[in-house]
């Protein structure tokens, strides 16, 4: 079964579903590769204007599949693919809408953050707990500093705690909170608003939003990838990932 499902809802709207519900849509090399391909295919179709991204099962996405991430031979490949996914999402001409439910954690919250508009179901938990796994959540910082400001970014990244959807809306991380049964319809309603705008102007508006910052998203993410990989190759990352997979608290050793 494909780990990414693509459904053309209308000639102008594509729905993309992360489809590893048994693993809470944890990000693997396969899933990230298929997600990038899905974005590019939709972007290359002139009539397509909007992509709605969602997750199958109990959660939107809980981040990297740490069983795969524990393999040092795959560390750079997964990090590079997360980086490429975030850049592809942020730079596509399509307007991207994410509908999140259950949990959007770590890389899953990063993917959400790279989209233009986010609607979340009541009860969704969102956060960046990478420091508790010995990792640096560098790849998402470009988006967080634009969306939530430095003080809230420090709280999210240094504390590593998950927040609820209402708190996420309060700090600007998501746009709307709705009952879970209304999640897709809310995304579709916003899509309808977008379709009233001129396609070329919408694409120009997206580009200008990025260019108004002194450094582009791509430059930010490329820099962050270096920091992320330094952490991925450290003893702390090996211990943090092993502790998660073994369902035990990590044993942090000062000076390692």
List keywords for this structure.
alpha/beta, 256 residues, 11 helices, three-stranded mixed beta sheet, 2-enoyl-CoA Hydratase, Chain A, domain 1, single chain, six-stranded mixed beta sheet
Written description of the protein model:
The protein has 256 residues and is α/β, with parallel strands linked by helices. The chain has a domain at 4-181: 2-enoyl-CoA Hydratase, Chain A, domain 1. The protein contains 11 helices and 9 strands. The chain has a 6-stranded mixed sheet, with helices on both faces. It has a 3-stranded mixed sheet with strand order 5-7-8. α3 packs antiparallel against α10.
Proportion in helices: 40-55%
Spatial shape: globular
Q: The biggest beta sheet, please? A: 6 strands, mixed
Count of individual helical segments: 11
Helix-strand blueprint:
Elements: E1 4-10, E2 13-18, H1 29-43, E3 50-55, H2 66-69, H3 75-91, E4 95-100, E5 103-105, H4 107-113, E6 117-121, E7 125-127, H5 141-147, H6 149-159, E8 163-164, H7 165-170, E9 176-178, H8 183-194, H9 199-211, H10 217-232, H11 235-245
Helix pairs in contact: 1-3, 3-10
Summarize the structure.
By secondary structure, the protein is an alpha/beta fold.
């Amino acid at each position: 079964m494909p780990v990414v499902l693509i459904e053309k809802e209308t000639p102008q709207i594509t729905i993309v579903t992360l489809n590893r519900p048994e693993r809470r849509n944890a990000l693997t090399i396969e899933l990230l590769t298929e997600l990038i391909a899905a974005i590019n295919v939709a972007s290359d179709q002139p009539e397509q204007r909007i992509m709605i991204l969602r997750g199958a099962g109990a959660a939107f996405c809980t981040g990297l599949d740490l069983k795969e991430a524990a393999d040092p031979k795959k560390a750079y490949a997964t990090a590079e693919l997360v980086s490429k996914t975030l850049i592809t999402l942020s730079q596509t001409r399509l307007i991207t809408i994410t509908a999140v439910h259950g949990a959007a954690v770590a890389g899953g919250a990063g993917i959400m953050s790279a989209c233009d508009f986010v609607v979340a179901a009541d009860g969704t938990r969102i956060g960046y707990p990478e420091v508790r796994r010995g990792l640096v959540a560098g790849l998402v910082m470009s988006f967080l500093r634009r969306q939530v400001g430095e003080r809230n970014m420090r709280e999210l990244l240094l504390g590593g705690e998950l927040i609820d959807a209402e708190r996420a809306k309060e700090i600007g991380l998501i746009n709307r909170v709705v009952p879970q049964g209304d999640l897709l319809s809310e995304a579709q309603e916003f899509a309808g608003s977008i379709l009233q705008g001129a396609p070329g102007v919408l694409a120009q508006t997206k580009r200008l939003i990025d260019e108004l910052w002194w450094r582009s998203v791509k430059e930010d993410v490329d820099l962050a990838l270096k920091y992320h990989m330094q952490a991925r190759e450290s003893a702390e990352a090996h211990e943090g990932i092993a502790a998660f997979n073994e369902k035990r608290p990590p044993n942090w050793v000062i000076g390692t």
